[in-house]
Amino acid sequence: MIVTGTAVLRFRQEWVMGLSLQCVVRSVFHLKCPFCGMTRDFVAILHGQHPEQNPFSWLAVVVIYFVYPAVFVWAWLNRKLDVFYRPVVYRVLIAGLILMFVVNNLHS
Predict the structure, then answer these.
(1) Whole-angstrom Cα distance, residue 97 to residue 27?
(2) What are 19-42's pLDDT values in tens digits?
(3) What is the distance of C-alpha 46 from the center of its chain?
(4) In sequence order, which residues have a C-beta less than 8 Å from that of residue 16 and are 6 or more positions away?
(5) What is the pTM of this model?
(6) Is the Cβ–Cβ distance between 53 and 40 less than 8 Å?
(7) What is the pLDDT of residues 77-87, one digit of tens each?
(8) Contact 9, 46 (CB under 8 A)
(9) 8 A C-beta contact, residue 56 and residue 62
(10) 8 A C-beta contact, residue 67 and residue 73
(11) How far apart (Å, rounded) are the C-alpha atoms in residues 62 and 59?
């Protein structure tokens, strides 16, 4: 799914960008969620441009395309797929999302 999504955003970004999807968090609370602007930033990165919307876009690219696949391959080879269900993983993800939320709204 990651490869397919990347290919669509690289070669047919109008299929996604033309949908004009609305962020529920932004619509209801008038705050940017941790992911606001990230699709637009991925398109910019894939076309060799600097992302403008989300200050964490570069980090998301590193995590999605390098860290997550590396951990998945490691877990698969070591037969430890339960690593993704450990409480520490959830805590790190929640802390990261909270940090992204705060920085995304301070960055405005």
Answers:
(1) 19
(2) 777 778 888 888 888 777 777 777
(3) 14
(4) 8, 9, 39, 43
(5) 0.57
(6) yes
(7) 887 777 667 78
(8) yes
(9) no
(10) no
(11) 5
Q: What is the CA radius of gyration of the chain?
A: 16
Residue 73: alpha-carbon gap to chain centroid: 20
Do the beta carbons of residue 105 and residue 32 sit within 8 Å? yes
Q: Are 9 and 43 in contact (CB under 8 A)?
A: yes
Where are any strands of DSSP class E within 1-108? Answer: none
Q: Which residue has the tokens 């941790």?
A: 34
Chain position carrying tokens 């037969």: 79
Q: Which two tokens stand for residue 76?
A: 């698969």
The span from the CA of 45 to the CA of 39, in Å, is: 10
Domain count along the chain: 1
* Residues 65, 2 contacting (CB under 8 angstroms): yes
- Tally of residues, the chain: 108
